[in-house]
Amino acid sequence: MAVTSVKVSHDGWSGTADIENGYSFNVTYLVEVNDPADGPGEIIRDSRIPGIGDRYSAGNDRYFLALAKNISATPVSGTRNLWEVVVSFERLTPEMGRGEGEIGDIKEDAQEDDPTEWPVIVTMGTTRVSRAAQFGVYMGQLRYRVGGNQRANINLTRGRSGTFDMRKLLPMPKRNVRVNFFNEIQNDRAITNSNFKPFDPAPEIDYQRYIINIEFRTLHYPAPLIRAVNCVNKSDFLLSHIIETQDEDGADRTLLTKMSIKKQTCKIQSIDIAPMQSNGVGYFRCNLELEIDPLYGWRLDILDRGYSVKDNTLESDGSYSVGKVKVITDEAGNPLKEPSLLDGHGELIDHENFDAVYLQYAVYPEIDFRGLNIHQPQLLKNIKD
Fold first, then answer.
1. Nearest-angstrom CA–CA distance, 54 and 45
2. What is the 8-class DSSP label of residue 110?
3. pLDDT tens per residue across all 385 residues of the chain
4. CB 233 within 8 Å of CB 307
5. Do 383 and 373 form a contact (C-beta atoms < 8 A)?
6. Is residue 115 assigned to a domain?
């Protein structure tokens, strides 16, 4: 009982361009299911089919100003497991209010009669946070000699002399910090002292998280968003918000807010709701706050370390006890005074193959934000139970 394949049908692929409404597209998908009892609801909800509000993307074709506005699914005549799904993409052009002032300065008594047609306001900022540093790029050592000028420029010791273990040459200092397209560090390692032990307490770093506030109005009580407070996105999504306005010369201008958000990095922090009334129409004014941690995300990574390791010796009756441990000792048989790194299986870590092992726990509910219309803030007004 599932969708087994989704393919773009070339015969049902079309597009038009209009001087007033811009580009629009129709894409037909040929969908195969493995159970004739599978209906259009399950087919339309498949992640390989664009959802309402998703931007146009088919094959090598892209146009982020055209969004999916209609989806229909019909069975292919003469078959029991084939369906055609047609998705229509149109340019989304939310109406701007008629009030004076900047976009963020909305006067509720100067807008259209339908409050839900007033512009959705998306604002972005940052907040400074701090946490224990888990990883870093090992660059080498600064060696200060006794009696030397501690304020003098000291050359960084690299190569073999800069390793913790000169016999195994671990770890080898790096010459630069390597990053990818998203400015994520690619050559970091677990932060430890030169004896491969974690620092206690761990060094702290500060960095910035993104804060996104979305102000919108809806006729419906946004119960799904209230339930989603403290939830984290389980999959990647693109937050895209469009406002059509004019420049100082009266020419049309499109303001686009766009941000690619990786899975498990965006958390719904809060929602403020105020019942309002305008021109006899009752509605809810809402402010949704998202907090995005692009560096570490919202899962909890705990360094696997301790003072004991797994004891695999059998009991006197030949049975094996889960959770049986023995204390880690030094060469003289004395218990260690600082924790040792473990390998994720209750044993001491193999430093030749691993820098460290972190145990990851999901401590917040993880849900699909696409079902909440967060990826297209213009559509938040439609959210309801």
1. 13
2. G
3. 678 999 998 888 999 988 777 789 999 999 999 888 888 988 998 888 988 878 788 887 877 678 889 999 999 998 989 999 999 998 765 443 333 333 333 344 444 567 777 888 898 888 989 998 989 999 999 988 887 777 677 889 999 999 999 888 899 999 999 999 878 899 999 898 998 888 878 899 999 999 999 999 999 999 999 999 999 999 999 999 887 777 777 788 888 888 999 999 999 999 999 998 887 889 999 999 999 999 999 999 988 999 999 998 888 888 888 888 999 998 899 998 888 899 999 999 998 888 889 999 999 999 999 889 999 998 998 888 8
4. no
5. yes
6. no
348 in Cβ contact with 309 (< 8 Å) = yes
Q: Report CA dihedral (371, 374, 380, 384) to the nearest 10 degrees.
A: 30
CA–CA dist 184, 137 (Å, integer): 12
31 found inside a domain: yes
Note whether 334 and 235 are same-domain residues. no
Cα–chain-centroid distance for residue 64?
A: 20
Q: Which residues pair with 135 in a beta bridge?
A: 190
> Using omega within 30 degrees of 0 as the cis cutoff, is the peptide bond preceding 119 cis?
no
Distance CA 98, CA 157 (A): 65
State the virtual CA torsion across 128, 241, 262, 45 in degrees, nearest 10.
Answer: 140
d(CA 102, CA 255): 13
Report the distance separating Cα 82 and Cα 76, nearest Å: 6
Instruction: Measure CA of the first residue to CA of the last residue in the chain; give whole Å.
Output: 26
Kindly state whether residue 73 falls inside one of the protein's structural domains: yes
Give me the residue label for tokens 């201008």: 253
Q: Do residue 268 and residue 278 come from a single domain? A: yes
Question: 75 is written with which tokens?
Answer: 């069975």
Residue 28 in contact with residue 9, Cβ under 8 Å?
A: yes
